[in-house]
Amino acid sequence: MARGFSKAIITGNVVRDPELRATSGGTQVCSFSVAVNYNYVQNGEKKEQVSYINCSAWGKAGEIIAQYAKKGTGILVSGRLSQRAFEDKTGAKRSATEIVVEDFNFLGGAGEGSSSRSYTPSSNNESADIIPDDIPDEPIDLSEVPF
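^ that's the sequence the OP posted. Answer follows.
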């Protein structure tokens, strides 16, 4: 039987301040949503559609997102799709789909400089550090890149 594959990559802005909590086993998990805008033209009129994508980041990644992201922060998220079923407070059956974060980059924007900070866990499941703060925040002149 063939094995499935799930990968999602989005970029947008954090909708509200991320929420960090711990499981009963003590593992940290951060929940947040990202607004992803899509612009298109219909009948000669410019339109915009916004999707709100739920995300969860576990362990060190979740701690970093909770510490540094806030409402409006630009972020690029990469991870796997996860779907879960549950019953709401009224007993109705519901389902939710979210991205379980595997990698992310904070994206600079207006008022935030042009910096970008990233996180990628190492292959042995140990946490990697975000890019050090001593890297200059100036834009790169691509004409100076030797390749």
